[in-house]
Amino acid sequence: MIRVLDNNKGFTLIELLASLAILSIIIGLVSSVLINSMNYSERSESKLSLASEANLLLAQLTNYHQSGETYKVSYNSTTTEIKVNDTVVGKPDLQYILVIDQQKYQGLPSSTSSAQSFPDRNIVTYRPLFVELRIIDEKSQQYEVKTVINRK
């Protein structure tokens, strides 16, 4: 009977508690790294989407400007849309602040009540066009670009 008691091959309570504490620290570190990487991925995906939207809008402006014809930029306060030659540019859930040669066009989402009207503006293509564009999404992520569009 004494031999059986001396032959313990199990873990003590202190060893079990120490291993649980180490395991919980490791799980906490790994989960915080995963959560931070998911948040970063979401933010960078949103930023990439805004950059893509800005590139699309600037490509449309560049195409109009390099066509050699006069074109019109307008802002409709009832529909909160920025239009280039009666073609709506942009998505309805984003806020656009477009400055063309110091004339500001601001397209706000439909839920925003501070929309203002701006007069239609005919853009001539024989001179460079100075453009500032800022796009803001529903999570207040921003993307801003300033550029000059030249005629070919």
From TrEMBL:
- Membrane-crossing segments per the record: 12-35
InterPro entries on file: N_methyl_site, Pilin-like
Q: Name one GO biological process term.
A: establishment of competence for transformation
Q: Name one GO cellular component term.
A: cell surface
Q: Does the keyword Transmembrane helix apply?
A: yes
Q: What is this protein called?
A: Prepilin-type N-terminal cleavage/methylation domain-containing protein
Q: Where in the cell is it found?
A: Cell surface
**Which domain of life does the UniProt lineage start with?**
Bacteria
What taxonomic classification does the UniProt entry list for its organism?
Bacteria, Bacillati, Bacillota, Bacilli, Bacillales
**Which UniProt keywords are given for this protein, alphabetically ordered?**
Competence, Membrane, Transmembrane, Transmembrane helix
Classification via SUPFAM superfamilies: Pili subunits
